[in-house]
């Protein structure tokens, strides 16, 4: 059995579906490989009907970096094991990415049908990236977006991502925790996420730790005292005791109080101390624990709540007045449990400057043709008012926007749904950035993506510019994402051309 393919990063490049290589073989045989293709990666809807949070751009760029730095010999070794077409193996072994990559940065808020990533490259180069890009982006977008929903429900209480053990494999655990932080989580529990991204990991204790000291109240107290004794002087001096192994109210909280007193831990302790509740009626128990802590003078003791939490349960706990200083959320974030398949797609929209379109009986699947970019328009109060998807070239609405002139945005299906954007009453920003040009990575922009906390700050800054009614977790107020007039004309011109044939 040959397992060496899993030992190299290049395996991620060819972690693909076979049809992309079957089609590439045909393109090569038909001498189509040098046609310049434009592909958009976007999504059609979110779980709550609102926005998504971008994560994964750094990993996609790294994917292309690996493609360009892997030796011809190594490429040939792997391609020759999975492809029978020798001429295609030879072509791919020598191939490097020579195109362009445009993207909306990690941490940005985005909406359905907006091109998050655009690849402009020779056809085969762009084609074989489809599955690897979607594999990265669907997981990252799904987790960052779910983290956003949960942290918004919890606000102002912080959320920790504790879901590595439920994640769908290694990459999902590592990248997923990073995505959760970008989406608003205060921290995470994964060691490799800390190693790779420099994000400190957090943790408390497990039930098995307590059970290792025996059964019953005395054993639990011994476990607590021993934990405090060895952890109080550590750099990570968080003394959070898990108190529901036997009986939260009658045994656990009392043992925690006794252990803290015995070890001299009180409100003067420089680190964090407190308890975690992981079962039972969390609202009821948290109130009882808060009362006991306050009665004993432990007013700074923290209460962390865990146990299969999601945004609905967190909202319910808030409504019940639960006493909580932090939530630990596992699988709801780690696998975006209620919406596990994000549904991002990768569609060709142009070939040799000829716009292309996909038509479907399912209207949501009709693609937007042409080489495009995205602009965000803000009202006079600084709130995001609308996004404009425009053509890169020869777009009148975009030119008016850039020149701060009056222009009208309208729903592509309903002419009466239109808005006049008046000069001097709006500002704008271009969301689309070019990260790779002619195969060369923009190092400054790329390096920014490695600063995960900067990406998180960008998310929080973007979130602050979203009106409250558009941040609702249920039936959020709709946000205008409009095509420019020239793009609408192009789209429906192609549809009419097809229908009238």
Structural class: alpha/beta
CATH architecture group name of the largest domain: Alpha-Beta Barrel
The name of the CATH topology of the largest domain is nicotinate phosphoribosyltransferase
Using only C-alpha atoms, the radius of gyration works out to: 26 Å
Helix content: 40-55%
- Counting copies of identical and different chains, the oligomeric state is single chain
**How many domains make up the coordinates?**
2
Quickly count the helices: 19
Tell the overall outline.
globular
Question: In whole angstroms, how far apart are the ends?
Answer: 54 Å
Query: What profile does the largest beta sheet have?
Result: 7 strands, antiparallel
Query: What's the total number of strands?
Result: 21
Domain Nicotinate phosphoribosyltransferase N-terminal: 15-138
Pfam families: NAPRTase_C, NAPRTase_N
EC number: 6.3.4.21
Keywords: Glycosyltransferase, Ligase, Phosphoprotein, Pyridine nucleotide biosynthesis, Transferase
